[in-house]
Amino acid sequence: MMKEQPEIRTETCQIELPQAIIETFARFLVPEIRKYYDSEQGQREFAEWQNAQGKTE
User: Fold this and answer.
1) How is 1-57 classified by DSSP, letter by letter?
2) Which of 42, 47, 50, 53 could form a disulfide with 37 if both were Cys (CB 3.0 to 4.6 A apart)?
């Protein structure tokens, strides 16, 4: 028996955030992303992603 897929909503909300909030979030997020991609798991998953991209192009 197959599970019923949930309906995907395509509505978008237009929210304008102040530039200061975006910059603050980026200052928090970028170092975390770098830590992940510097880790063994991040490097492995990135290599897998690159391989997958090469197969689809």
Assistant:
1) -PPPPPPPP------PPPHHHHHHHHHHHHHHHHHHHHSHHHHHHHHHHHHHHHHH-
2) 42
